[in-house]
Design a protein that fits this description.
heterotrimer; A: alpha/beta; Glutathione S-transferase Yfyf (Class Pi), Chain A, domain 2; Rossmann fold; four-stranded parallel sheet; 8 strands; B: alpha/beta; FAD/NAD(P)-binding domain; 5 domains; five-stranded parallel sheet; 16 helices; 35 strands
Chain lengths: ~290, ~675, ~200
């Protein structure tokens, strides 16, 4: 049984709660040993790098230093956390000045940083460590009839594409197909949802989210499946505002771990299905599920 | 001038000359001081200074002194040997002295031009002079070798470059063998419709030349053939050529093409390479009706007879010349030539490396070569601009710089794409009346009448949008975009981001080296640049020569190039080859290495080190030998040899050590 | 009415380009061939006052005031599409970050524009608690920038509460002192470097 550390990040404890619930449930059902990183701090996301460069790296570095004590891979489901932690590792490896400042500062806090930890994405772990074969065997209720638009967002394929293609990623598609769902082909797989702009500059952010919802609906998807808590929040939470500004889309937005969990026979209550602001009940019922 | 008798009778009499070089040397070095210093050194019989040693009077002074003062060695302290070593060697020869009893000292680039203090510059000049005088005593009498040159030439690659080079050489009376890998000569140019900037029909200007090649008495044309081995050296190359089987006897076939009609496949079924996969052919085929030689060939991958052995062979029956031979095997031929011209051409960028442009995913996306065939009257659609799905485009987008000027694909500019994109814009508009948009970064139109061609296109109402397109997508934002291919671009000149819906996208692909360029260049023992194109000897002063004497390069195999420049280069390469052949012999610099056989231990350390493949190992004798004709005197083997059995002329141990001691002695 | 739009050499900051290239991520600034693919691929470029390509050009030429005062840098969503497409491997996203940092440092940004305020408040919350409570952050942000917009958010707020996605308790890490020491050490390092130079 392989052990992993788990870095939730601030979102997964708040607006992205369903992601944490479904992710942990799926991992348990697959027999993976997942433990939350001790006393983790916020990674800084995209906001902090706009204020302070070295402090941002130090912030993320603290998490890596804590993880290093255990010599285990760290899974970061949130796309922003995933990017920030990887970017920090790269910067600390390649930039001598930043490394000097950050490593010394961490030392002042009693932390040791060597850069040995691997930061992984759940998709990477599921496809490459667990394997589609094993997962397929555990599918009890394939979600037949469920048509999904797989939405990856930006930060797990850009700027670093390690486990999937940068322009046309397919790992989530593969997983969803194994769960029995049909994935539509559409050109907006990795188009930015607007990030934090939906809340701060709605006239801009709403349109970006609307574009994605509209195209997914046009291609015949019943639901969007995503892997980033902010993307899910943007696409799910603002549909009311989008309806009043543009048109009503009424498209549920699920996490891939939720779809996978349902296909593995886990109850919806364990997967946070009811946490979607746009209800997924109808679509899932049509997809052969309760 | 100071005259001395040699201090010791055993030392050879040295003549020392120091040049002022105008003020180049004299402004920083006290020339008289050095002259006086040298005069007092042991063995120096004559020591002079002069304003311009390389001038006629300077050279005559040397020749005269050699005769009058019975000089046995010569040292000139002046500029770089790159400039005048040959000059002073000739002066020595004129005076009756073996030219290799001469040593040149560079006190210009090595002393005067790198010092700011006169005293230290002069001191250094003295040190260098002293070293050279010590060294030159150990020089030996050497001779330049002469090797005869075979007057025949091999031209590899039958595109426009190879064709032109072959014709030029043949017209000069030389026997040329032209080897081409495809079944016909003509290269990429045969596939073009019209050529820029004149809009000449490519086939119309090319086919007469192709025909001239076929009928020229001095040219042996071997198509469907490849060079498999090259041995030898300048003036004396032995080349092995493999001729692939066509399964049709070339000397019997007249190209009537009855066999193609008779083939068991009633309809052409297989994607044909010449039409870039847009057209179809049968297993027995000819690339195009004007193919040279006009001989059909059979594709072993698709012919039923060749794959299963079970076919009625109506093709063979239809042939009244009885030219078919399904048992034909590959043939090996050998050639002796004195010079080789490589004109193997280029390949276009593989658009599968840029999936964001949608080639293969959207049927309306084409490569430039595909469009050349599309607009060609003898192409798969007879020149009608009709898409794969049968529709006629109303709007066409041409994207420049696909696979060029990009750190992720190819860094270089492919030079011809802007011009051919203009040409395709014109042809597409003329054939279809569609709205045409060219998306470019810079408009590169440097050739003769090229800018005027751009102006012509501007006048035709083609839209020129300066902005690079990032992707081709079918995501529609407005009703007019539904069902179209949308190109999102920043119109950098107008200052807006624009979305342009089109029906057809043309990718202007860049030029790259052939996929087997590395293999080929190793076979011919020439170099490649870091991008993979063949390496010229000097980018400005020797663009068609390579570092291997006797092998010349021409055309796009050296760098992306348009047709006028390619033909000019082909002529240049032919001229270089003619210059070599008509001289009749090659003179070799004697600074080569040789192995003292008794001292060779047979360890083979030197064999793989030679960058010119000049060292071979005799398994019977267990000794290495150096081919002095291939040797360029780089010295690597001499330095590496553990037993010291390799000696390099002009760089022997006594010469080097005496020079070192000379520098250090104060 | 009519505005004079000429730029004199005195309007440029000659050192600005050099400063950008000295920062992490800004090294390749000068290699831009102005192809515009960054603007083509940027999902926000249609809203920006200066497109990314234009901003790079202006930064290169030293139009510091226009660059730091633009909306462009704040509208960047860090999707990294520009960096991936750039044929000269210019790290456009990182350049946006370094310009944002400089703009905040110099206090040059549109007042009450939510994004720089968000960045700053985000930082403050992390510094204090080590983690960010989304609800409190949003409330803080809107109180500082736009009351009305905040009222418009109540619908969303209700939905989040209904689905259990709103956490009202501020999260904090246990080892706040440890984090404080790390961040203080960086401040000390900065201070000593500045003193060494002066």
């Amino acid at each position: 049984m392989k052990k992993y550390l788990y870095f939730p990040g601030c979102s997964l404890k708040g607006s992205g709660k369903a992601y944490e619930e479904s992710f942990l449930a799926v991992c348990k059902a697959l027999g993976m040993d997942i433990r939350e990183l001790e006393d983790w701090n916020c990674c800084g996301a995209t906001a902090y790098m706009s204020v302070e460069e070295t402090k941002s790296y130090a912030l993320a570095g603290r998490n890596l230093a804590i993880a290093e004590r255990e010599d285990l891979d760290v899974i970061a489901p949130c796309s922003a956390c995933y990017l920030v932690l990887n970017k920090t590792q790269k910067a600390l490896k390649e930039n001598t000045e930043i490394r000097r400042k950050v490593v010394n500062a961490l030392k002042a806090g009693g932390l040791d940083y060597k850069g040995t930890v691997k930061v992984r994405h759940p998709l990477d772990v599921l496809i490459n460590d667990v394997g589609l074969e094993k997962i397929s065997k555990l599918i009890k209720n394939p979600v037949k009839g469920l048509k999904l638009a797989p939405y990856y967002g930006c930060q797990i394929v850009r700027p670093y594409a390690t486990f999937d293609d940068q322009h046309d990623p397919v790992t989530m598609d593969k997983l969803m197909k194994a769960a029995g769902a049909e994935c539509v082909t559409w050109p907006l797989k990795t188009r930015c949802c607007g990030g934090s702009l939906t809340g701060t500059v709605p006239e801009v952010g709403l349109r970006l989210a609307y574009i994605i919802l509209k195209e997914a609906k046009k291609r015949g998807a019943g639901a969007i499946v995503t892997l980033c808590p902010l993307c899910q929040f943007n696409l799910d939470g603002y549909q009311g505002k989008i309806a009043s500004k543009y048109e009503s889309v009424d498209m549920p937005v699920l996490y891939f771990t939720q779809v996978l969990g349902l296909a593995m026979g886990l109850p919806g209550s364990e997967l946070g299905i009811k946490r979607g602001i746009i209800s997924a009940e109808a679509v899932l019922a049509g997809g052969g599920l309760r | 001038m100071t005259e001395n008798k040699s201090k010791k009778e055993t030392l050879p009499r040295v003549g020392f000359y120091i040049c002022h070089c105008g003020s180049n040397i004299a402004s920083m070095i006290d020339v008289l001081e050095v002259q006086k210093y040298a005069a007092a050194l042991p063995g120096v019989a004559v020591s002079r200074e002069y304003k311009y040693m390389c001038s006629d009077p300077g050279q005559e002074m040397i020749a005269k002194d050699i005769k009058e003062h019975k000089l046995e060695r010569l040292v000139v302290a002046a500029c770089s040997p790159n400039l005048h070593e040959e000059t002073f060697r000739k002066a020595a020869a004129k005076g009756g002295l073996n030219p290799f009893f001469f040593q040149m000292v560079n006190i210009r680039e090595h002393a005067a031009w790198v010092h700011e203090d006169k005293k230290s510059a002069t001191e250094k000049a003295k040190d260098l002079a002293r070293a050279a005088i010590a060294r030159v005593r150990f020089h030996k009498s050497l001779d330049k070798k002469r090797v005869a040159v075979d007057p025949n030439v091999l031209v590899v690659g039958g595109g426009i470059a190879g064709i032109h080079a072959a014709l030029t050489l043949a017209n000069a009376g030389k026997k040329v063998t032209l080897v081409e890998r495809e079944a016909t000569i003509g290269g990429h140019m045969a596939a073009f419709d019209k050529t820029f900037p004149t809009l000449d029909c490519a086939a119309c200007i090319l086919t007469p030349k192709m025909s001239a090649v076929k009928s020229h008495p001095n040219i042996t044309l071997w198509t469907y053939s490849e060079v498999s081995k090259v041995e030898g050296y300048v003036g004396n190359y032995k080349v092995t050529v493999t001729r692939k089987p066509r399964f049709v006897k070339e000397d019997l076939c007249v190209g009537c093409m009855e066999c193609i009609d008779a083939c068991v496949f009633k309809e052409p079924k297989f994607k044909d390479k010449f039409n870039q996969g847009l057209g179809k052919r049968k297993p027995v085929y000819i690339d195009f009706p004007q193919a040279t030689p006009k001989v059909v060939l059979v594709d072993p991958e698709t012919c039923i007879q060749l794959k299963t052995g079970k076919c009625k062979q109506p093709c063979a029956a239809a042939c009244d010349r009885k030219a078919f031979d399904f048992n034909q095997k590959a043939e090996t031929k050998e050639l002796q030539v004195g010079a080789i011209v490589l004109s193997t051409g280029f390949k276009t960028y593989d658009v599968a490396r840029s999936p964001q442009y949608g080639y293969g995913r959207y049927p309306g996306v084409y490569t430039a070569l595909e469009v050349e065939r599309l607009v060609n009257a003898s192409g798969p659609t007879s020149g009608e601009v009709v898409l794969r799905d049968g529709t006629h485009p109303k709007a066409v987008g041409i994207i420049h710089c696909v696979g060029s000027r990009d750190a992720k694909t190819n860094k270089w500019c492919s030079r011809v794409c802007c011009m051919y994109s203009l040409k395709l814009a014109h042809l597409i508009k003329e054939h279809s009346g569609a709205e045409v948009y060219n998306f470019y970064i810079d408009m590169r139109a440097p050739g003769k009448a090229y800018e005027e061609f751009y102006d012509k296109l501007l006048g035709e109402g083609v839209h020129f949008i300066r902005g690079r397109v990032d992707e081709v997508t079918d995501w529609a934002m407005t009703p007019e975009e539904e069902g179209k291919l949308v190109l999102r671009v920043e119109d950098t000149l107008a200052g807006f981001v624009r979305r342009i819906p089109v029906d057809m996208v043309v990718l202007s692909t860049g030029l790259e080296p052939q996929p087997d360029a590395q293999e080929v260049r190793r076979r011919f023992n020439i170099g490649c640049g870091s991008e993979g194109f063949f390496q010229e000897r000097h980018p400005k002063l020797a663009p068609v020569n390579t570092f291997t004497d006797g092998i010349y390069i021409a055309g796009a195999c050296q760098a992306p190039r348009d047709i006028p420049d390619t033909v000019a280069q082909a002529g240049a390469a032919a001229a270089e080859a003619l210059s070599l052949i008509d001289a009749g012999f090659v003179e070799l610099e004697p600074n080569t290495s040789h192995i003292v056989e008794e001292e060779c231990s047979g360890c083979k350390t030197c064999v793989p080190l030679c960058p010119y493949s000049a060292i071979t190992f005799d398994e019977a004798k267990k000794k290495a030998t150096i081919n002095e004709v291939l040797c360029k005197g780089c010295g690597v083997c001499a330095a590496a040899c553990p037993s010291g059995s390799i000696r390099q002329n002009l760089f022997e141990d006594d010469e080097i050590f005496s020079e070192i001691e000379g520098v250090l002695a104060k | 009415m009519l505005e004079q739009k000429v730029k004199y050499e005195g309007d440029c900051d000659k050192e600005f380009a050099k400063w950008v290239t000295s920062q992490t991520g800004g090294e390749n600034l000068r290699h831009c061939i102005q192809c515009g693919i960054c603007s083509a691929t940027c999902p926000l470029s249609l809203y920006m006052d200066y497109t990314p390509r234009r901003l790079i050009n202006m930064a290169r030429e030293g139009f510091k005031k226009e660059v730091l005062g633009s909306f462009t840098i704040w509208l960047c969503a860090s999707c990294y599409a520009c960096r991936v497409e750039c044929p000269k491997e210019i790290q456009v996203t990182d350049i946006m970050y370094l310009l944002k940092r400089r703009a905040i440092e110099e206090g040059v940004y549109p007042r009450r524009f939510p994004i720089p305020v968000l960045a700053r408040e985000f930082g403050r919350m992390i510094f204090m608690f080590g983690r960010v409570n989304e609800t409190l952050l949003v409330i803080d942000l809107f109180l500082r920038t736009n009351w009305f917009k905040f009222l418009g958010m109540t619908g969303l707020g209700m939905n989040l509460m209904r689905t259990g996605r709103m956490s009202l308790i501020p999260e904090t890490i246990k080892n706040r002192a440890e984090l404080r020491k790390v961040l203080d050490a960086l401040d000390a390092d900065e201070k000593s470097k500045r003193e060494a130079v002066s």
